[in-house]
Amino acid sequence: MINLSASDSQFSEPLPTRLHLTVESGLSERLDSWLAQQLPDYSRSRLQKLIEAGQVRVNQQVCTQKKSAVQPGDAIALTIPAAEPLDLVAEAIPLDILYEDAHLLIINKPA
After folding, report:
1. How confident is the model at residue 52 (pLDDT cuts 50, 70, 90)?
2. pLDDT, tens digit, for every residue of 84-98?
3. Distances (CA, A) of 13 to 3, 7, 34
4. CA-wise closest residue to 68 among 111, 24, 23
5. Sign of the CA dihedral with 56 first, then 62, 21, and 36 last
6. Which residue among 32, 63, 81, 108 is least packed, with the fewest CB closer than 10 Å?
7. CA separation, residue 106 to residues 16, 19, 90 (Å)
């Protein structure tokens, strides 16, 4: 069972996403593996980082161990922080362009 807390559009900054899941049935399984099965839109690596950052609660207790076992009946709350915009600045660099048209660009990249 997954419940999502939707962000409210009246705020100018994106809000974190909060997920509430319940382990319905099955055998004891690692927390990161179970979350990866339940949330296929997130990589297991990303979920492990969220666990290590203290963004996961199991039965209302912060869990920072990705190897912790989940049992049927466990309540899991996951907070996914809002994406932070990157401060990228374009810079002029010399490019050795071999071919360019409306659909294709071929660049000679040195080793």
Report:
1. very high
2. 888 899 999 889 999
3. 22, 10, 31
4. 23
5. positive
6. 108
7. 40, 44, 20
Determine the Cα–Cα distance for residues 26 and 85; give it in Å rounded to an integer: 39
The token pair at 81 is 């922080």
Angle of helix 31-38 relative to helix 44-52, nearest 10 degrees?
A: 130
Kindly state the tokens that stand for 73.
């009946």
Query: Does the pTM of the predicted model rise above 0.70?
Result: no
Q: What is the DSSP string of the chain?
A: -EEEEPPPTTSSSPPPEEEEEE--SSS-EEHHHHHHHH-TTS-HHHHHHHHHTT-EEETTEE---TTPEE-TT-EEEEEEPPPPPP---------EEEEE-SS-EEEE---
